[in-house]
Amino acid sequence: MTETRTAVIIGAGLIGLSTADSLIRRGVEVTVVDARDGPVRGTSFSNSGMIHPSQARSWSPTRKATQAQRDAESATRDLAKDAMPRLLSRMEELGLQDMRARPRGCYQIFPDLDAARAAQTQLSADGITANVVIDPSRTFSKPALFFPEDRSGDAHAYGCALADDLTARGVTFIYGAGDVRMRWDSVPGRVAVSLAGHRFRADDVVICTGARSSEILAPLGLSARITPVRGWAVDFDLPADFRLPPTPVMDAVSRSALTVFEDRFRLSGTWNEDSARPLLERWAELIPDVLGRAKQARSVWSGLRPVSGAGRPYIGAAPIPADRGDTAGEPGTPSRLWVNIGHGHMGWTLCAGAGELAAAMITGEREDARFAYGG
Ligand SMILES: Cc1cc2nc3c(=O)[nH]c(=O)nc-3n(C[C@H](O)[C@H](O)[C@H](O)COP(=O)(O)OP(=O)(O)OC[C@H]3O[C@@H](n4cnc5c(N)ncnc54)[C@H](O)[C@@H]3O)c2cc1C
């Protein structure tokens, strides 16, 4: 009799849930553990909602376009292309037809036409379709690029629906029990997972801990260059007397966006600011009429993007560090510890593809060195 393969996933954000989804489809028995008291309460809670393969490129202001960076961007673009149809079909299966049917596309506004055209040229060299437009009602009379292949949707609503579906399909969730800790096990090449005094053993342990990944990997002697980069999200009621664009509008200057959801609009983004003020000031310049009339914000939230040093996610086996000695197996060889981390500003866009790739690696169907662990 063959035993059922078991996996513990740490992190119930978009990435952990999508990994669980793809593993359970392969017959793996999955437990998902999260320090918080429910699913999608980390960075996945209140993002800008853009499913934007067009942005599979570094958002870092200090980006250096080295060959390694270009390779990372190209790998991320491929993953985003693979992820899109998977995500759309999961929306359909989860009964999120309204999300699936949202108008296509995202805009990105630029300070002037030259900047928009320069970005279009660069994107077209990378195979990304972007049309230059100036549309007073949709781009606030600014020169913009329209990305017809992008989509949008409420990531939090999707994550909650997915978590419910996973529960119904037999995934066990453990929430609110504090931070999971990890250490090497006496079984070579394996890790032990402990949570509030309780110890788990599973065939595979998958780290999907977003911006906190360096923290959980450090006690194993593994460094992960995942930098938390703060972003803000401020939600408002939809003004009754004002039409806002139904597709998201990004602002290239502030790395932020305006997204209209069913009953509210959200201003979100910016890159490592200490408060929501720069976000609100920028949009007060862009849409003074709307912000002037919007009542008090419904909510103000901030979250940390898990930005990887390599400029692309790390998906695959974690290596065993050289100093682990005989308890950890042969140094340098992969353990049964896996990571699916470092999705930066792209986690909603990539989640369905990243979950699928991780699951295919874990079950030995696929390898893809382009996403190798980058400590
Ligand atoms: C303002 C903003 C706007 C964004 N907009 C977009 C967008 O439009 N499109 C897009 O594609 N992406 C966007 N992103 C990025 C996207 O939201 C993230 O890439 C994605 O949410 C990361 O998902 P995750 O599952 O890796 O992390 P998280 O959602 O943070 O999940 C990780 C989970 O791990 C848990 N955890 C961590 N450590 C431990 C531990 N030791 N023990 C137990 N549990 C632990 C946490 O509690 C958390 O629930 C945006 C991000 C921000 C901040």
Please state the structural category.
alpha/beta
Task: Please outline the major beta sheet.
Answer: 8 strands, mixed
Note the gap between the termini.
39 Å
What is the helix fraction of residues, given as a range? 25-40%
Q: How many separate helices?
A: 10
Shape: globular
Number of strands: 19
CATH topology of one domain: FAD/NAD(P)-binding domain
The portion of residues forming beta strands comes to: 25-35%
Helix and strand element order? EHEEHHEHEHEEHEEEEEHEEEEHHEEEH
pLDDT averaged over residues: 92
Rg of Cα set? 21 Å
Uncertain regions: pLDDT < 50 for 5+ in a row?
none
Quick one: CATH class of one domain? Alpha Beta
What is the spatial order of strands in the main beta sheet? 5-6-4-14-15-16-13-17
What does this structure look like?
This protein has 375 residues and is an alpha/beta fold. The protein has a domain at 1-104 and 151-227 and 309-375: FAD/NAD(P)-binding domain (3-Layer(bba) Sandwich), CATH 3.50.50. The chain is 29% helix and 26% strand. The chain has ten helices and 19 strands. The chain has an eight-stranded mixed beta sheet, sandwiched between helices. The radius of gyration is 21 Å and the shape is globular. The structure holds flavin-adenine dinucleotide.
